[in-house]
Specification:
The chain has three helices and eight strands; from the N terminus they run ββαββααββββ. With 140 residues, it is α+β, with helices and mostly antiparallel strands.
């Protein structure tokens, strides 16, 4: 069963599309049908399938999660204990816990069966740039 790890560099909080990399992996595998499992190897970012046509969707999602789970230096977050790695760290862990670290995508005809406007994204929850590893595994 084909498997690889891709690495993405982030520039801070936001959504980073990697649909093309995932599709290239599926195509290169030569496997026509199966299930692509996508797994992120970190606890302060996550994965999502979202619209890839209108960039406002990405902006709005980032703003929603900032409002839902503000930085730990926000007065509403005084209860947070884990602050050693900065005010964005524990909120990033909370955001990752509320979202997904693994996604399964059906494959048919050697292609991901994503909808017309769907893209596969790494959702970075930290403010500073990071290097993130994503495991792609194509099962039969």
């Amino acid at each position: 069963m084909p498997q690889t790890i891709i690495s993405l560099s982030t520039r801070g909080a936001g959504l980073y599309e990697f649909t093309d990399e995932a599709q290239a992996f599926v195509r290169k595998s030569g496997q026509a049908e199966g299930l692509l499992t996508v797994f992120v190897r970190h606890t302060s970012c996550s994965l999502t399938i979202q619209e890839n046509a209108d960039p406002d969707v990405k902006r709005d999602l980032v703003q929603f999660f900032k409002r839902l789970v503000p930085s730990s230096d926000d007065p509403s977050m005084r209860w947070i204990v884990h602050t050693a790695e900065g005010p964005d760290d524990m909120p990033a862990h909370i955001k990752a816990a509320l979202t997904l670290t693994s996604i399964g995508i059906p494959v048919a005809g050697g292609r991901l069966l994503l909808g017309t406007w769907q893209g596969l994204y790494l959702f970075e929850h930290r403010d500073l740039p990071h290097r993130r590893e994503i495991v792609l595994h194509l099962g039969g």
